[in-house]
Each structure stands twice: as structure tokens, then as C-alpha cells.
Amino acid sequence: MNNYKLIGRAGEGAHGFVFKGLDLRTQKYVALKKVAVNPNVGIPKNIFREICSLRVLKFRNIVKLIEVTSMGSSVILVMEYLPWSLADVLKNYDKSLTLSQIKTYSKMMLNGIDYIHQNHIMHRDMKPANLMISEKGVLKIADFGLARIYDETTPTLYSHQVATRWYRAPELLYGSRNYTQSVDMWSVGCIIAEMVNGQPLFPGETDIEQLAIVLDTLGTPNDETWPELKELPDYNKIVFTPSTPKSWRIILSTADSSTVSLISKILIYNGIRRLTAREALKHEFFRNEPYPCKLSKMPKLKNEAPEMTWNFADFDECLEKLEKK
């Protein structure tokens, strides 16, 4: 760790704190993610998945893993430093995103998820907070702690307790354990809709409320819209009042026809029929005016707070706070 100087805290993930650091060899900023390791158990499963995924995935729209090192009994992931997330932009940008900007972010997100899927990996936690943005405006997918290899030729049971609730596909809410990469596309559809509306599309406080909001918005599924529904583990555990689907013109009141078309072809119950990332990239949404804008026209947030020099002992202080939560 002698090659790095701590500058300050950059964020807090589900499995560790992230610090902003300076690589003394290159004079470039880096993100330092430190995770405590129990010597009796080894590297946490989620961190191992993240390391493996980032070592395989080398792409312009995926955060770059620079190296993996250690300090005492902790593992430290050194990644490229990206100052903002899409969540930061949606919360702190002083203007509404233009449709051109939404298209640019959507295209970069879809390019990234297409690359991930082509490499037989499911991300399983796509959300605005995990979409990091560089100072030049490039969007990069981060946080692969829930990523899993996906092999459609080999039946595999996966955990349904994945993806942040607001972006969790309905099959996961019904307890499915043999889902596909289409769960990532549901999340993508929710993210694009959130950029359009300026607020989350399905903001449930509990899993049951989450499912209720989805069903109230898209209508009660049936054998035609979701043939496999009755086979899902939690199908009979709760009954919702029947509802008819709302018009997408109401759901996305400010959107044009091509935007509505794209989102409505992603946010459907039957995962087999959801657009893939590659199919979405070919949608008229990206071919119609206004076209995706250049990076120079993308949002830029205000400068960060003044930098401070930190001690590596601060890592341990943060970990102690995390353990108390």
C-alpha cells in the first residue's frame, strides 16, 4: 500500500468502504475498496465474485480493476476513480435530463450490460448507484458483488434475494431461482424510466409492496402475459386485488412514442419476451431525433469538497462503524 495515498472517503458499499486515493506512481486518482477478511473463512463470496468478474470484463463501459492487494488481514481492490454515479446525477443535477442525455446514458448502459451478458455473466444489481460516471461523462457499470456466471445449457438454481428492491424483476419477487439474464434487463428498463420520469418507477418499501406496485401498474398477469407464473415458488403465498394495466402514456406522461416503445418492451412480465440488451440497442429509440448527445454535452456536477489527506488507520475506523450497523 506504499504506492497509494488516501485522499478521503468516496462512498460506502454493501461490503466495505470506498476511499479516494492517489496512485503515487502515476499521480492518478484511484478508488480503494477495503474489505476485512476472516482468516478462518477466507475472502467473502461477494468480493471474490467481484474480483473474478472485473478480471474478465475489460470494456469501456465497465469500471476498471487496476489491482488487488492486501493490508494486514484485509483485501483491497484498487479501481479507477469515478467521481459520480447516475444516482448522484438524478439527485443533484440542477436540471432535468434532456432526452438526448438520457439516450447517451442508456446507450452506454446497454453497451455495458450487453458485453456482460455476452460473457455469460449476470450482474444482478443494476441500479443508478452502481452506474458510475467519469469526469468526461462516460458511464461505467460497477459493483459486481452479486454477479454470477450464467450458462443456459446447464440448469442452475440461483438466489432470488438479489437486486435492489426497486429494480428487482417480478420473477425474483415471486421467488424464482432459475431465472435468466433478463432480470438485468428489467432493472435497465426501470433505470431508463427513472431518468425519463425523474423518480423511481416502482418505489416499494417492502417486497410485498414492491410487487403490489408492479402489478397495479402493469396489470394482473395471466397465462398469456406470463405463462410460467403459476410455477413460481411464492405464487400462492399472497393474493392481490385484480387490476388492469395502466396506459404507458400515463406511466410515462412526458415521453415520446419511441421512448414508450422501448421501455414497454423491456418492462414485461415474461422474461423470455423482454428485449435483450443487443435488441434494445437496435431499437428506434436511438435512431430517432433527438439523437444521443456528445459527451461534452453530458451533465457535470459541482466540484467535490476540498481534499484531505487521510491515514490508512481510517480504514479500520470505517470498518468498525460498518460492523456496528
From TrEMBL:
Top-level taxonomic group: Eukaryota
Q: Which residues form the Protein kinase domain?
A: 4-286
EC primary class: transferase
What Pfam families does its record include? Pkinase (PF00069)
Q: Is Nucleotide-binding given among the entry's keywords?
A: yes
Per its record, the protein catalyses: L-seryl-[protein] + ATP = O-phospho-L-seryl-[protein] + ADP + H(+); L-threonyl-[protein] + ATP = O-phospho-L-threonyl-[protein] + ADP + H(+)
Q: Which UniProt keywords apply?
A: ATP-binding, Cell cycle, Cell division, Cell projection, Cytoplasm, Developmental protein, Kinase, Nucleotide-binding, Nucleus, Serine/threonine-protein kinase, Transferase
Task: Enumerate the GO terms in the molecular function aspect.
Answer: ATP binding; cyclin-dependent protein serine/threonine kinase activity
The answer to whether UniProt assigns keyword tRNA-binding to this entry is: no
Looking up SMART domains in the UniProt record yields:
S_TKc (SM00220)
Q: Which GO terms of the cellular component aspect does the record hold?
A: cell projection; cytoplasm; nucleus
What EC numbers are recorded for this enzyme?
2.7.11.22
Tell me where in or outside the cell this protein is found.
Answer: Cell projection; Cytoplasm; Nucleus
Output the PROSITE patterns linked to this UniProt entry. Answer: PROTEIN_KINASE_DOM, PROTEIN_KINASE_ST
Family of the protein in this entry: Belongs to the protein kinase superfamily. CMGC Ser/Thr protein kinase family. CDC2/CDKX subfamily.
The protein, known as = Cyclin-dependent kinase 20
Which organism encodes this protein?
Acanthoscelides obtectus
What does UniProt list as this organism's lineage? Eukaryota, Metazoa, Ecdysozoa, Arthropoda, Hexapoda
